[in-house]
């Protein structure tokens, strides 16, 4: 019989959620740091008690997350360590086949399991539970969908548990995730629930606004004139429904047109629409770089377009308004003009550390070049910092798993006060608790916004600081993420406790 170790004391909300998850396929939505992993542990122990001859599978999208799950089972259950195995694609396939047979707890990345199912290295007959961590990924052709269907078909005692801090804002996406994972019940808690609030440290939010410099605005006006030509043509030819669409609408329109081409429906109008859409998307991206990152990033992007041989880029870079934008940007770049957020963030960090020298600060930015620039300036201003980036080893620019862990350990030990990073520190790495999180730019995704904020207030009072450039996409994205988060919570609370109606379509897998 498997048992939890005596020093494990689940909170009441964890026990309550686990009771539902023991009998129903359940999607658990909890803020980052509120113990989703312990809930999976409670359910796993229950399944091994009910079905002692079966196995448990824990899937998570990254190796660092998988390692965390492995440590949880090793530290909090009496299962022998050799029966808790971590499988990734780096392990020889023949060795994985042996490990499947001998393990009671299989912790793996989903692509590994999908591949082994397709190559018949593993069957799921004797697994009684699969936990899908970061289950908001269970959309489209992500491996979670394939594995869930295989499990429902093969297992004799199937139970599914999905874990996420945010499944997404739209009801359609939430229902898609539930359908792909065969979810029957939703359990959600937020910091405002009575059984959770006493376990959550307060997190203060502050918005710090900066003005876009006048010379930046002049470039922006020129680029918006370039953009307007394409958008008006697309609207008047009925490829988009409005004159001022967001980027997502343009990307959706581009996918529709490309799908027609793939299907063999080719005509001159659609070809020209594809050119116009590609141009509009690139100009929008350029404007966003100018507004949120700075003139150097904007200029570098346009120089890349100038060196391209693609018809879209050649056409675009011949536009006199774009040429003038490049000239102005080059002047500012040569003068060393920075985005005002750069100076602001340096002064914010300096002030926080003067007030509380032992503080731990994390800075999120979307681009590695921004992270590198901030790291350099912090160093020049006497502030120790390190960069945490992903594992882009092929390009020789990434960090290995061991290097990431070493940086995090040094951060935990207080060797440096500031950690900078891109999306890799939003999800998939066990970042230690911090006092301050600074968003260099806002993000329109409620999932990413929630994951970023979840790094603060785990064990102590924290603060999240948003840097926002007035009248730009920074401002729009900030309110977009808030609106999506409210919509997500309203939808999930409306689903909580109810039996979810869904179609279980297994035939397309067989």
Identify the notable features of this structure and list them briefly.
510 residues, alpha/beta, Rossmann fold, phosphoenolpyruvate carboxylase, domain 3, 3 domains, six-stranded parallel beta sheet, 13 strands, 50% helix, 13% strand, disordered C terminus
Task: Describe the structure in your own words.
By secondary structure, the protein is of the alpha/beta class. It folds into three domains: 12-198, Rossmann fold (3-Layer(aba) Sandwich); 203-210 and 339-470, 3-Layer(aba) Sandwich (Rossmann fold), CATH 3.40.50; 214-334, Up-down Bundle (phosphoenolpyruvate carboxylase, domain 3). 50% of the residues lie in helices and 13% in strands. It has 19 helices and 13 strands. The protein has helices spanning 12-21, 36-50, 63-76, 93-102, 110-118, 143-154, 171-180, 194-197, 214-236, 247-262, 268-292, 295-306, 311-317, 320-334, 340-355, 368-380, 401-412, 446-453, 473-495, and strands spanning 26-29, 55-59, 84-87, 105-108, 127-133, 160-164, 185-188, 203-210, 361-364, 385-388, 418-421, 436-439, 462-469. A seven-stranded parallel sheet has the order 3-4-2-5-6-1-7, with helices on both faces. A six-stranded parallel sheet has the order 8-13-12-9-11-10, sandwiched between helices. Strand 5 (127-133), helix 6 and strand 6 (160-164) form a beta-alpha-beta unit. Residues 506-510 have low confidence and may be disordered.
């Amino acid at each position: 019989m498997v048992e939890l170790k005596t020093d494990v004391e689940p909170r009441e909300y964890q026990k309550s959620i686990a009771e539902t998850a023991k009998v129903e396929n359940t999607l658990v939505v909890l803020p980052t740091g509120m113990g989703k992993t312990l809930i999976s542990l409670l359910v796993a122990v229950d399944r091994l008690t009910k079905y002692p001859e079966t196995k448990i599978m824990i899937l998570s999208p990254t190796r660092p997350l998988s390692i965390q799950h492995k440590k949880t089972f090793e530290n909090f259950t009496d299962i022998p360590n050799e029966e808790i195995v971590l499988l990734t694609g780096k392990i020889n396939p023949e060795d994985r086949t042996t490990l499947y047979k001998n393990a009671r707890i299989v912790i793996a990345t989903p692509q590994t399991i999908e591949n082994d199912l397709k190559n018949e290295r593993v069957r799921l007959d004797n697994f009684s539970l699969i936990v899908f961590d970061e289950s908001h990924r269970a959309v489209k052709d992500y491996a979670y969908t394939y594995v869930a269907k295989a499990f429902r078909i093969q297992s004799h005692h199937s139970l599914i548990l999905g874990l996420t801090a945010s499944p997404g804002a739209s009801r359609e996406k939430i229902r898609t995730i539930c359908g792909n994972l065969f979810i029957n019940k939703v359990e959600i808690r937020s910091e405002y629930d009575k059984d959770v609030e006493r376990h959550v440290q307060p997190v203060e939010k502050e918005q710090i606004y900066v003005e876009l410099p006048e010379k930046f605005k002049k470039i922006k006006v020129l680029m918006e004139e370039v953009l307007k030509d394409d958008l008006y043509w697309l609207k008047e030819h009925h490829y988009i429904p409005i004159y001022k669409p967001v980027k997502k609408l343009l990307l959706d329109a581009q996918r529709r047109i490309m799908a027609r081409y793939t299907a063999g429906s080719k005509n001159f109008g659609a070809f020209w629409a594809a050119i116009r859409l590609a141009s509009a998307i690139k100009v929008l991206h350029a404007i966003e770089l100018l507004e949120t990152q700075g003139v150097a990033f904007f200029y570098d992007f346009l120089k890349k377009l100038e060196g391209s041989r693609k018809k879209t880029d050649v056409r675009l870079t011949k536009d006199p308004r774009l040429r003038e934008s490049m000239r102005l940007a080059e002047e500012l770049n040569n003068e060393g003009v920075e985005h005002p957020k750069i100076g602001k963030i340096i002064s914010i960090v300096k002030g926080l550390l003067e007030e509380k020298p032992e503080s731990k600060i994390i800075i999120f930015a979307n681009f590695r070049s921004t992270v590198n620039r901030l790291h350099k300036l912090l160093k020049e201003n006497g502030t120790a910092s390190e960069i945490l980036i992903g594992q882009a080893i092929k390009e020789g620019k990434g960090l290995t798993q061991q290097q990431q862990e070493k940086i995090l350990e040094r951060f935990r030990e207080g060797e440096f006060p500031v950690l900078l990073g891109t999306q890799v520190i939003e999800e998939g790495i066990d970042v230690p608790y911090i006092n301050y999180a600074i968003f260099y730019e806002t993000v329109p995704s409620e999932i990413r916004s929630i994951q970023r904020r979840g790094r603060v207030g785990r064990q102590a009072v924290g603060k999240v600081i948003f840097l926002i450039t007035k009248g730009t996409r920074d401002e729009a994205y900030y309110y977009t993420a808030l609106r999506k988060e409210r919509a997500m919570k309203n939808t999930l609370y409306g689903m909580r406790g109810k039996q979810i109606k869904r179609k279980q379509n297994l035939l397309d897998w067989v």
